[in-house]
Amino acid sequence: QVQLVQSGAEVKKPGASVKVSCKASGYSLRSYDINWVRQATGQGLEWMGWMDPDTGNAGYAQKFQGRVTMTRHASISTVYMELSSLRSEDTAVYYCARLNAPRTAGEGSGFDYWGQGTLVTVAS
Amino acid sequence: DIVMTQSPDSLAVSLGERATINCKSSQSVLYSSRNKNYVAWYQQKPGQPPKLLISWASTRESGVPDRVSGSGSGTDFTLTISSLQAEDVAVYYCQQYYSTPTFGQGTKVEIK
Predict the structure, then answer these.
(1) What does the pLDDT read at residue A75?
(2) Chain A touched by B50 (CB under 8 Å)
(3) Which listed residue, of A65, B16, B18, B34, carries a Cα 20 to 30 Å from B67's Cα?
C-alpha cells in the first residue's frame, strides 16, 4: 500500500536550517509530484511547494522563495524539504503529500496520500 | 494568490442532521475550456494529516461515504454532510489548485 513516512521531530535554534525527509513506498516515487504543506499548532494548512521527483524540478510558494529547497534521492525513494533561516514562526508540523495523478495521466486534483507529519520547533 | 474563505468557522450539528460548509474563492477557479472547477475538500481529525474527500469540486474519492458531497462552480462551493455521524467530527478545509495552491482557513464541525 502507498505510504509516505517522514523523519522525526526536530528542535532548532533561530537562524538554523532543518531538513525533513519523506520516504515513499508502495508506488514509484518518480511518477507522482510531491508537495509540502505545513501547519502551525491550532492553525490552518499552508502550501510550501512541489517537486517532480523524476526530474528534480520544483516550484515554491512566493513566501518561502529563497529559504526552501526541495530535493530528492530517487534511488531510495526519498524526497527532502530543507528550510533555512528558521524563525519562531516556522514552528509547525510539516507534511509531505502526493499529488493524486501521475504525470502521465494528466492533471492532479488534490493530495491523496500524506506523510504522518514532522514537528519542527524553533526556539532559542 | 487566490484567497479561499470558508464559512462558518465552526458549526455544531445534531447527529443525523445536515452540515453545510461554504467556501468562496477570490477569483473563479473554473477552467472553462475543460469545464472543471479546481477545488478539493479535506477532512482533518486531531493528530492526523488531512484526508482528501472531494476533488474537482464534486468528485468523491474512493471510500468516502456518499453522505458527503461537494457542489458549486466558479467562486462558490459547498461541502455537505447529509446526515452527520460521530466520526464526521473534524476540521474541514477547501483548497484550490487552479493556480498556486491555497487552502481555506478551516471549519470545525462538532456535535450539538
Answers:
(1) 83
(2) yes
(3) B34
The CA–CA distances, whole Å, from B23 to A39, B2, B19 equal 20, 12, 13
User: The C-alpha cell of A92 is what?
Assistant: 509547525
pLDDT number for residue A101: 87
User: How close is the nearest chain B Cα to the Cα of A24, in Å?
Assistant: 16
Residue in B with minimal Cα distance to A119? B47
B49 vs A95: CB contact, 8 Å cut-off?
yes
Percent of chain A at pLDDT exceeding 90: 89
Contact (CB, 8 A) for A117 and B49: yes
Q: What is the pLDDT of residues A66-76, one digit of tens each?
A: 999 999 997 88
| CA A117 – CA A84 distance, rounded (Å) | 19
Q: Read off the pLDDT of residues B62-91 as tens digits, 9 standing for 90 and up.
A: 999 999 999 999 999 999 999 999 999 999
Q: Is the pLDDT of residue A114 over 90?
A: yes
Which residues of chain A are within 8 Å of residue B21 when distances are taken between CB atoms?
A: none
Burial of A62 (0-12, 13-18, 19+ CB in 10 A): exposed
Backbone angles phi, psi at B96, to 5 degrees: -110, 145
Check: CB of residue A119 under 8 Å from CB of residue A93. yes
Tell me, yes or no, if B58 comes closer than 8 A to chain A by beta carbon: no
Contacts of B49 in chain A (CB under 8 A): 95, 97, 114-117
